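[job 4471] stage=fold_predict status=RUNNING
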Amino acid sequence: MEFPKNLLPDGASPEWMNKADNAWQITAATLVGLQSVPGLMILYGGMVKKKWAVNSAFMALYAFAAVLVCWVGWGFRMAFGDTLVDFWGKPAVALDEKFLLEQAFLGYFPNSTMVLFQFMFAAITLILIGGAVLGRMSFRAWMLFVPLWLTFSYTFGAYSIWCPDGWLAKLGVIDFAGGYVIHLSAGVAGFTAAYWVGPRSDKDRERFPPNNILLMLAGAGLLWMGWTGFNGGAPYAASTVSSLAALNTHVCAATSLITWLVLDIAIFGKPSVVGAVQGMITGLVCITPAAGVVQCWAAILMGIISGSIPWYTMMILHHKIKLLRYVDDTFAVFHTHAIAGCLGGILTGFFAVPKLSRLFFSVADWEKYIGLAYGLQTGRTSAGFHQMAVQLVGIAFIVCLNIVTTSLICLFIQLIVPLRLSDEELDIGDDAVHGEEAYALWDDGQRFENSKLNSIYDVDEFTSNFSNTASELQMV
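[job 4471] inference complete, writing structure tokens
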């Protein structure tokens, strides 16, 4: 019996490549990319005060582009390449066809697919960090921060946890799709960066309403749906584990959103749209380290926990702790990503199912991956406590790593350019920083408002346009 011609190996489809896995992995990478561009661009642009809409969306767009250049230049192989030390790989390019067409270190697809998929993870991490410093960080400082943090922080965490040669990977930490590498890192790094950059202007900190809630919801929807690829792509295969991971992701997110909503109504008397989005995010973050290794009923319990504990830390505890009040974390990334990421890691250590861990890791020593609940149930109590301890070690490493590296990076950037915008720029916003505004009146294709810093047209032309428009309005 012969295979159909479309299944026969050839030069472009070698024997080791699984076409279905490769197709799914590229699709998953695209879904994760859409979470950032345009997902988080739209979410950030709609969720901030009107005068910061352009700056916030542009910071996300720049980070996406800059990370890709750095990733193929040196980042990917520092995160997944040959060992330099136990927590870092040797820098090398991922540009030549010989390397890109070889089989990836995991999965049945080429390196080029792995580079693309892991780039999307790296990019969204930087964009999430940006959510903590919106409304006051210098764009020039952000341009330096992105490649430096990717190189000297992200690659450390990714290599340690996800690379088979990393020390935490060998120790047995379970981080299915980035609860530690992405979300805990982003939450801690964002909070640390917010400390060094300083707070927004007093006016902005007192009142910072979303300029477009419907646009914010559109971005949130892209973020949620894109998580199918985020967690569903983590097994590197079109498998039963990827299907379970996708289902658990949405179940946890929905449960967390509803939990947050109920708490908002019970305590504050009104259902908050912004609160519902925050609850959705905490659920998505919490399930990420566990998505394919826990039961669906466990995903519901994780959703209840992720919708309540971060709600409490953000809405109640935040106002009682001096440090949390002092650090101006614009989008509460510390609560939605650091707290939720910690919860996810701990709950993974409790709910991880040995059988599912075997299906996901596919290694000889898979029996070490057992949640405490199943350790107690099967008489392997010490193994369950060991897994819980390993999860805590992973949390401690990521927290310490990001506090130290992010602080050093911010202090270094200060030597070159100011981290913070000037008082005038803080007062004006987008027009002062970029010479552009998100919502401007237009007449015959030209700006109605007079920009101080963007000489698109001269003053006489503006005066003529203004007079004509004013006359038309009076006639109406």
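[job 4471] summary: The mean pLDDT is 92.
[job 4471] exit 0
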